[in-house]
Amino acid sequence: MMKKTYSLLIVLICLGCFWACQEDDQTVLQQPESFVLNTPKYVSGVYDLKNTETLEFTCTQPDYGFTAVAIYSVQVSLTEDFSEYKTLPGTHTTAKIEVKGSDFAVALVELLKIEEESQYPTDLQPVYVRLSSVLTDDGIGKVYSNVITLPKVKGYFALEPMVMPENIYLAGNITDNWNWNKATEMVPVHSAEGKFWAIQYLGKTSENADAQIKFNTVKAGDAAFGSNDITIDEKSVDLAGITTNDDGNIVIGTPGWYIVVVTTTINGRSYEYAVEFHAPYVYLQGDINGGNWGTTDAAYRFTVPDLSAGASAEFVSPAFTAPSGDGGVRASIVLEGYDWWKTEFIVLNNKLEYRGAGEDQDRVAGKTGQKLYINFTAKTGKIE
Fold first, then answer.
1. Residues 120, 168: contact at Cβ < 8 Å?
2. How far apart are CA 350 and CA 274, in angstroms?
3. When comparing pLDDT for 187 and 29, which is higher?
4. Cα 227 from Cα 255, distance rounded (Å)
């Protein structure tokens, strides 16, 4: 009996030692108070941002209590207390950090709050720099470095580069009475940056009012652009019976379904938008129509719903004249000057899927005699 008691005691002691070792091995996050941003070796020289491709900074990693990959951001200010500052674009994961001189210059323009080149100060100015460090994108372990001074910085009137919009939205009295949360997200044309399209119902409202629309790059009515900010070609004006009103809305005098196209160009520091309206023609493409790719033959055109059916009516294809084969069931609109596949779409699992600016899509099979049904408002569809 005594022997068994000793054996049990030894087991318990060993287990206690094991768990103690496990606790010692646990990783515990320590929150450092700061970390060191090193003063650059040649800090006394002039930083001529217009002629400086990159600025280099180095630091020591914050002591989080364990080896971790810190995510650094560079922040700049015109005051040492950082009462107002700008975070430069990009993040860094090494203790040697390079930032673009142009990004640095843009931040200074924003901090100086100047809008014209003539307002930019000609004297050298001190600029203050610090780093922030986090361990995760949601800010765990956030800590700031010390502040260093670059005493002689020569900036210039630098502006952020103009880039094409990533999204265009269409809204109006036909989207739940100007509800931008229900705006139509237009589809990018493949390989045509800044060009978007949508098949849109522009019939009369339930109050028998003409459809009125505007566009924006975000789902919001603020700064939406309409008739005062765009150009519309005469052919589109005649097709859709377009007029305008005092609110700058585009008024559709001829109710119907339309392909709406927005083309964005950059002119200096301004965006310019051209809007086109086309007949809502959708075509079957490829194997299912006998191998005709890029066709605009009316024999392979979907039927356009009657306006009385409303926005949720379905477009219906002709019956497939052949099985889908390796090409799958494919459909598109066709815009002049663009290959058909740059505006193609398919139905997968009863959902309408646009190719947009993405890669080639999955394939879905179809049989001779079947048809493709698409609800462009609900973004649904079926093959049967």
1. no
2. 33
3. 187
4. 18
Can you tell me the distance from the alpha carbon of 376 to that of 3, in angstroms, rounded to the nearest whole number?
82
Helix (H) or strand (E) holding 286: none
SS3 call for 182: helix
Q: What is the pLDDT of residue 312?
A: 93
Dihedral angle, C-alpha 266, 271, 276, 281, nearest 10 °: 70
* Number of other residues whose CB lies within 10 A of the CB of residue 295: 19
In tens, the pLDDT along 172-194 reads 999 999 999 999 999 999 999 99
Over its C-alpha atoms, the chain yields an Rg (Å, rounded) of 31
- For domain 169-277, the CATH architecture is Sandwich (2.60)
In terms of Cα–Cα distance, which of 279, 233, 266, 229 is closest to 249?
Answer: 229
Which of the four CATH numbers 3.30.470, 2.60.40, 2.30.31, 1.10.287 does domain 47-154 have?
A: 2.60.40
Per-residue pLDDT of 99-152, as tens digits, reads 999 999 999 999 999 989 999 999 999 999 999 999 998 889 999 999 999 999
The two three-digit tokens of residue 315, written as one number: 């477009």
CATH of 283-383, one of 3.40.718.10, 3.40.50.1820, 2.70.70.10, 2.60.40.3610: 2.60.40.3610
Q: Return d(Cα 248, Cα 335) in angstroms, integer.
A: 27
pTM of the model: 0.72
Within 10 A of 95 (CB to CB), how many other CB atoms are there?
17
